[in-house]
Write a structure and sequence with these properties.
The chain is of the alpha/beta class. It has helices spanning 40-47, 70-75, 93-100, 108-119, 121-125, 136-148, 166-181, 193-199, 217-221, 224-231, and strands at 2-11, 14-24, 29-34, 57-60, 63-64, 78-81, 154-158, 185-189, 202-207, 210-216. It is globular and about 45 Å long.
């Protein structure tokens, strides 16, 4: 479904992403793990068109999307939940969800909103509430719900557990598994490597902008070097 080949991203003279290549198959949960500053978010932002690679190629469903505008990439079925949630703080929950459907038209949008409320009952209770007054966990649910409004085939999640209490982290990861079981392919960036690998099919380990290890998630969980660096083992 997604194939990233030899992407290189620069911030001025800083070479942040260095020849990264990986792929995500339909139906998988694939995770990118690594320390802060390893380049995980930059990779997602490059896939979604917010950053541009110097060379290389990104293909989504066999179509080169390397130079396509971000809103058109969303319309193709690839959505991102950004780091830090970035909900529209002065809009209501309902308005945020409606914004997530800006690539779509017709009565199906209302059906999608109800689907989101069914998956996130807490959002339904707060549908008229201003998003800036929600808790961190509720804002994360809203950011995920907003992304789902575009009906993505591939959902990219950037640090969904950041700043959340452990019980909310478990809820968010349960929702990720449910979305995947319902047919959504997932690319997950997460600093909580233990949680990410526990639900993923495969994983890639990033260090200073390069992929240094890749394997099945279970294998990475039992890899001594990965344990020592990321799992507290």
């Amino acid at each position: 479904m997604l194939k990233v080949n030899d992407i290189n991203v620069y911030y001025g003279s800083i070479h942040a992403i260095k020849g990264v290549s990986f792929e995500v198959q339909k139906g998988e949960i694939v995770t990118l793990i690594g320390a802060n500053g390893a380049g995980k978010s930059s990779i997602l932002n490059t896939i979604s068109g917010l950053l541009r690679s110097k060379g290389g190629c990104i293909k989504f469903r066999d179509k080169n999307i390397s130079s396509i505008l971000p809103h058109k990439i969303v319309g193709m079925g690839l959505a991102q939940v950004p780091e830090g949630r970035r909900v529209f703080l002065k809009m209501s929950v309902q308005e945020n969800l409606e914004m997530g459907a800006y690539t779509r038209r017709g009565s199906e949008i209302n059906e999608s909103i109800e689907d989101v409320y069914e998956r996130f009952p807490r959002l339904k209770e707060r549908r008229r509430q201003v998003a800036g007054t929600l808790s961190g966990g509720e804002q994360q649910m809203l950011a995920m719900g907003r992304a789902l409004m575009s009906k993505p085939e591939l959902l990219m999640l950037d640090e969904p557990s950041m700043g959340l209490a452990p019980i909310l982290v478990e809820q968010i990861f349960d929702i990720i598994k449910e979305l995947n079981s319902a047919g959504t392919t997932i690319l997950l960036v997460e600093q909580n490597a233990q949680m990410a690998l526990s639900i993923a099919d495969r994983g890639y380990v990033l260090e200073t902008g390069k992929i240094v290890t890749s394997a099945d998630a279970r294998e990475l969980l039992n890899n001594d070097a990965v344990k020592k660096a990321y799992l507290g083992g």
